[in-house]
Specification:
The protein is built from eight helices and twelve strands. Helix content is 39%, strand content 17%.
Length: 312
């Protein structure tokens, strides 16, 4: 009888330790170029339904090891990324780039260090500062709340290596050039250019067919960085959210912002308030209505655009 009770207790304990929250459901990786792989997460905000996973973790296999860009929003997501990565190569991860401070992109660092403790974590100097100043703890709490505890157990592993605008990292046979900014999507942003391969990982400075949140950024900065991404004339653009593609996806984002800001300025000059502008803008931008987060972010976008115009 005692043995049976002990067995039940052990089984219950084992279930708790290795339960469904150990790793998110698997998503396949896609080879978007030779030795370059991306997991395209579902678009939307972190939730119970998507288990907190909604960005685009990517990795590059170099001659000396693997470089990861943005391993996801939690240790559970990171473990899924590790499992998918190991299906494509047996090389170790040597470097991890985090594109900005928003935790849905980098809290998966913990799982990378579990698998490869010597991997170097690299981020924007402002991202590192803000993470230490409270942003890391904020994002750990936020992810837990949005997923009703699914991401619990995640620990914020903050980058220790700074990446400056214009800096290049030579890793194996690949050159990773940094394009940093302090006033775009999050004010802590990196875009990472693979020079020889003409591939750009844009972070959230560019999204594919998704209306971004600019609560932490500026229109001036994001419009400049959108143009900067186009000027790089890459063959492949890997956005922070949405499908990988060619320069068309960047041109679509540029057209969105150009139209939005021009209309907000026109309506502001006509004396309209932000809430009066929304139905006018919704009609003007109806070609984008099927973009992810259109309804959720259009109103806040208009309000933020008005505030920025008023501060000019």
């Amino acid at each position: 009888m005692r043995s049976a009770v002990l067995l039940v207790a052990l089984l219950a304990c084992g279930a708790a330790l290795a339960g469904p929250q150990d790793v998110v459901r698997s998503y396949p990786s896609q080879s978007v170029a030779p030795d370059v792989h991306v997991i395209h997460g579902p678009q939307g905000v972190p939730s119970v339904g998507n288990q907190g996973f909604m960005n685009n973790p990517a990795w590059v296999v170099t001659a000396d090891g693997v470089v990861i860009i943005d391993p996801g929003s939690s240790v559970q997501v990171g473990r899924m990324v590790v499992a998918q990565l190991k299906q494509t190569t047996d090389k170790p991860v040597t470097h991890v780039f985090n594109t900005h401070v928003h935790g849905d992109h980098w809290l998966g660092n913990q799982a990378i260090l579990e698998a490869w403790p010597r991997a170097k974590l690299i981020g924007h100097p402002e991202m590192i500062r803000k993470a230490h100043d409270g942003a890391a703890a904020f994002w750990v709490r936020l992810m837990s709340g949005l997923t009703q505890g699914y991401t619990d157990g995640t620990r914020a592993e903050i980058p220790t290596v700074e990446a400056a605008d214009g800096q290049s990292f030579r890793i194996g046979d690949k050159t990773f050039r940094i394009h940093g900014s302090t006033d775009a999507h999050s004010k802590t942003d990196l875009m990472i250019e693979m020079v020889e391969d003409r591939i750009v990982f844009t972070g959230d400075n560019v999204l594919s067919r998704q209306v971004m949140s600019l609560r932490d950024g500026t229109f001036k900065g994001i419009m400049r960085e959108t143009g900067r991404a186009l000027a790089l004339d890459a063959r492949v653009y890997v956005p922070g959210h949405g499908k990988t593609g060619d320069r068309t996806l960047v041109e679509e984002q540029k057209a969105w912002f150009d139209t939005l800001m021009a209309e907000v300025r026109r309506l502001y000059d006509a004396g309209m308030s932000d809430f009066e502008m929304k139905p006018v803008l919704a009609e003007k931008l109806k070609a984008y209505r099927d973009w992810a987060e259109f309804d959720a972010n259009l109103g806040p976008m208009i309000s933020l655009a008005v505030l920025e115009i008023e501060q000019e």
